[in-house]
Design brief:
Blueprint lengths: L2 H28 L7 H9 L20 H24 L9 H10 L2 H10 L12 H30 L1
Amino acid sequence: MQINEVVTATAVIGIGATAVMDLWLLLLRRAGVPTGSFAMIGRWVGHFRNGRFTHAAIGKAPAVQHELTLGWLIHYATGLAYAALLVVIVGPQWLKAPTLLPALSFGLTTVIAPWLVMQPAMGSGFMSSKTPTPALNCIRSLANHAAFGIGLFLSAFVVAGVAR
């Protein structure tokens, strides 16, 4: 594959995988399972410009302008970056014949970011330890990132099929 084909395929896969995760979150919400708001991600990142990287409770931090839009942009940019990292790790040949295991394993591995960085920085503690239901929250995060991993595979499978 040419570099431009790899870049394009990777971008489509990142967007597709993130959309699969979003569909999973939508299904959870419709089933009555609480899910977070990307506005809180936008609020967290929005405070970076003021040198504020951690919060006791992000929901109580002052709102930032366009925080929901910023949160969605960060969410999709992260999906793109993760897809690129997956392709770097497994190699661009995976794009021609994607398999589930590398995508799912990688998707599950990405849960490290919320568990060890985002949740503590936003006031929930490491692995949601400061929430009323840390184990349940960790399982939800793991399921969400499994959906992302499945999305990586499904999106790569579609891209590979279109490329043929």
